Amino acid sequence: MGAAEASTRLGDELGARLRPLLARESSEERERRAQAERWVQTHELAQLMEGSPKKSLKMVEAFLRDYGEALDVESLAKVRGWRAALEEVTAPSTLEDFERTFAADEASFPRRGRVELTQRFDSLEEGAWSIGSWTAQGLGWQAPLHAGVEELIAAKAPTLLLRDPFELEAGPVEVEVELEVPLDARARLVVVSAIGFHCALVTEAGGGGRLVAGSRDLGRVIERAMSGAGEEFDGLLPGERYSLKMRANQSRGTLTVSLDGEERVRIEDLSPKDRARSTSVSLRSLEPLLLSGVRIEAGRR
Fold first, then answer.
1. Which of 90, 124, 153 delimits the end of a domain?
2. For the residues 41-45, what does the mean pLDDT come to?
3. What's the CA gap between 154 and 228, in Å, rounded?
4. Nearest CA among 265, 124, 137, 251 for reference residue 192
5. Are 106 and 207 contained in the same domain?
6. What is the pLDDT averaged over residues 188-193?
7. pLDDT confidence bin for 54, thresholds 50/70/90
């Protein structure tokens, strides 16, 4: 056998051995490209923005690291655009971000990773708060008189959405509401809601009251309070001012309620795991009641 023939045979043998390896490698590459494209097709920016943008950013970065080379030019540009958008919304927040978004009377960073907003309700427009069906009375926003519980639940209440740059999963959310019962009114039913938790206060005609807290259905919390359940307290009396504080943790499902500095309710394991988590703070009252101020402390990005 000549040198040329030996070289040809060696080349044929080498090619025969390499062809299955190359075919297998090509198949694996096609599968990686298919997996990468399926991931892009099953994700959207709006979906990634929901929940925790920080977690979404880490996921996108890991995907680009592992599958970026398997994407075509268009898909790669799309995912990089998602990354840029997530980086923008997860950048550390500033006081200016909160002032621009909520226009509160006071805003401060009391400690690392936390923000505190304070709002006084002495005019018709108060930052990012919606007045609902209440009216501005100079010293506060006043609730209208409602015919019953169904009308109360359906009515538009003063509400604030704790949107970005708040980060509600970063520790507890503390909401302190300042209330005043007019001299000619009776606080028969007052409900404060914060990030999916509700606190209903009922004051009896003859004096005394009950406080019920829960995180499930608002109507159910009110029903329990109106039926005589809950912790007893002195009631909300005409001509008096009160401070109600709710300290809630969505991740742990815990809630503590204090009235005028005294703890009244502590509940655990209430977080509704199977539902979208609320981001709002609101107040309802069956009869005229003044909302004079709200202080909110929570996590921030």
1. 90
2. 94
3. 23
4. 265
5. yes
6. 97
7. confident
User: CA nearest 246: which of 300, 176, 298, 186?
Assistant: 176
Nearest to 189 by CA among 171, 216, 166, 212: 212
Q: Which residue has the tokens 């708060």?
A: 129
Q: Which domain holds residue 24?
A: 3-90
261 contacts 241 by C-beta, under 8 angstroms: no
- The token pair that represents 194 in the structure block: 């914060």
CATH number where 261 lies: 2.60.120.200
Say how far apart CA 145 and CA 90 lie, in whole Å. 43
* pTM for the predicted model, two decimal places: 0.78
* Residue 277: pLDDT band with limits 50, 70, 90: confident
Reported as a single tens digit per residue, the pLDDT across 281-298 is 999 999 999 999 999 999
Please state the rounded mean pLDDT for residues 31-35: 91
CA distance 265 to 262: 9
- pLDDT at residue 18, as a whole number: 52
